[in-house]
Amino acid sequence: MFESGGVSGHAAGKTTFCRLLRWVLGEGNFGDDNLREAIRRKLSRGGVAAEVVVKGVSWLVWREFRRGGRSYCCSGKRLDDLFLSDFERAQFTNYADAVAEIVEPTARGITLPASKQPIDWEHILPWLCRDQECRFATILEWREPASESESPSVPAADRSVIVRTVLNMLAADEERMAAQHAALRERHLRERNQLRLLQHQAKVELQRLAGELSIELDADGPELALAAIISDYTGKLQKLSAQRQAPQDSSELAEAQDKLKHATEVRHAAEIWLEDDKRHLEIDRRALKRLRDQSLKDEEEIWMAMMAAPKGRCNVPLEVAKAEGCPLAVGRAIDFATEVELRRDKDRIAAYERSIAAMEQDLAQREAALALLRTAEQSAEEASKRKFAAHNQSLLAVADEEHRCRNLLALAKNAEKSQEDANALSESISVLDKAIRESQQDLQELRESQKQAQANFRGWLEWVVQAVLGSDASVSLEQRIDFVRVCIERSGERNSAAMRTVGVLAFDLAAMLCSCEGQGWHPRLLIHDSPREADLSPDIYRKFFLLAVERLEAAYGDAEPGFQYIVTTTEAPPPQCQQAPWLIDPILDASTPEGRLLGIDL
Question: Are 328 and 312 in contact (CB under 8 A)?
């Protein structure tokens, strides 16, 4: 694939060849839209077949160009077996799964920090087969969007993680251990803050308890004092509760209440009897008035009809009552006729007057007696209230003391609980301190081992650069989160476009050589599409070929080299490389349609 003796290497299909290899290795597209449509028009039933060796197993792979075309595979077969009648076609996913197994199990556990995706084969393939459009300008530029490769788009920070992981300079254990270490420190900080709150709370509760009990409590070691207080007040509370629930001596209260009840009953009976006699007196007064004045007869009849029979009286005719010997009928007139006849009987009138006067005197005495009964009832009521208040005061005193004991006991238990929680948390923090120290040590040891891996990689990187530029060249590796750069020094730092390209090529070759030596799990496959076009001088360009042939392949002697390095170029390689097995046959030639990659003009 180079220009020599009038044979043109431009537009011969070098980049298409690389894109087809990438497609066979699992990439989504084999070219941009224009190229894919052109190939499908000219080769509607065409496809690409390849023999891919994955971990020592040979896979025969076929992928058709047309949309929705078939892709299949077969393990253990060679290209010559593709069109045999007994060729067993298996699903392409069987081969894809085998290729995906190239990713180390430890690497599959690493999540890319920016895109939050697990590392997969699709993330590594762009590094192995850089887009020619990227011009080999930087180490972490692998895909140009214009190539329409459908490779996963990941930020530079993720690509840095991918490279370090493949080179065993960033292990899954480091991420896991770093996360665990960060979690331990976060928990340590959280528990320290919580401990301060608990200690403050315990101190405040102890101060409150000491104030309530008027004692002193040592905040540094109050456990024994709190236990004694809790025991003491638990016993007091039990006694008070029993005292409150026990039957109370209420004989004096009962006696006072009985006296009040009796006084109330006597007073009530006296009031009823007095009211009865007052009604009797009123009847007699009206009867006397009737004797004195006949005109009052009608009024008296109406009044008598309206008035209910007084207590102790009845509506039996007076003649019947006298005949029956009723004591209440003595001295009473028999009827109005007789009373009218005797109206002017002064003796009767005088008798009524004497009876009424006696009744009035008796009523006055009884009213005075009723006043005394009321006073006695009031005194009995006040005595009962005093006894009741004294009885309740006794019960309330027990209840108040029980309430106080319960509050003090709760305060003591809360203080004890806060102290216990603080002690337990302090022990937990001590355990965390030890775990953090151990985690820090493990992480440091892991990072030291990775430093060794970095030093080994840097050694191979310098070896490649010196093989190309001379032994007076030296290199350093600059790494940041989203940036990796090879700095080449040779009589001062070299930062030209050519030196940047040398740095990129040397970086890829050093990664492959580390894997050959046993460090990391680089697949040991590199495809560099026309790096000469990245402003690389012919002399330096030829030295990369000689490095691969005379030093890398030669190191394997007669054995098959443990790597594959594919380079497309328009610049003629050194004469040593212009023969089998380093050149494809036939060499691509863009001067005729048949000389191009697919044998046609697209």
Answer: yes
